[in-house]
Design a protein that fits this description.
Elements: E1 5-9, H1 18-26, E2 31-35
């Protein structure tokens, strides 16, 4: 049996991931990774 992985992302720490997490659960996702960072916070000096 294959394991399903999901990815939930919100732009700010204040945003709620509950709706996305519920969707993942309803889709039978086994493991959910949550990202709460803004793209503007990344270091673009590379």
């Amino acid at each position: 049996m294959e394991k399903k992985f999901g990815y939930v992302r919100v732009s700010t720490k204040e945003q709620n991931t509950a709706r996305q997490e519920e969707l993942m659960k309803s889709l039978g996702v086994d493991e959910v990774y949550i990202d709460r960072l803004s793209g503007r916070d990344t270091d673009s000096s590379l």
